[in-house]
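User: Can you predict the 3D structure for this chain?
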Amino acid sequence: SAMQYVRRGRQILRKDPQQALVFAHQAVAASPRGFDANWLLGDALDDTGDPGDAIAAYEVAEQRISEMEPDARKRWEPGLQRDLAKAQTKLQNKSKAGTLAGAKPRPQHLN
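Assistant: Here is the predicted structure, written as structure tokens:
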């Protein structure tokens, strides 16, 4: 299930973001619009140097927040917003530094 991949990815994210990215892709394959799966994908992409695609994944997770109960929304929204803002800042810094290598296509599961 997607949650098993999310758990495994979260456990190793800081130590091995590349392997966490593999688990994140597996989680999204199992649950393309899943909140936890896309949040992990965003974190793993951001931690492996791809803030642009991280933002796209965070935005999928953000869409799911609106479907949550108010208490759950209060619990999860601040952290997701923090991670989204961090990726946006990295992308802006990358762009300012002139290292942005052109627009990349959106990940297929987000189309």
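Helices lie at 2-12, 17-30, 35-47, 51-65, 70-96. Residues 70-96 form the longest helix (27 residues).
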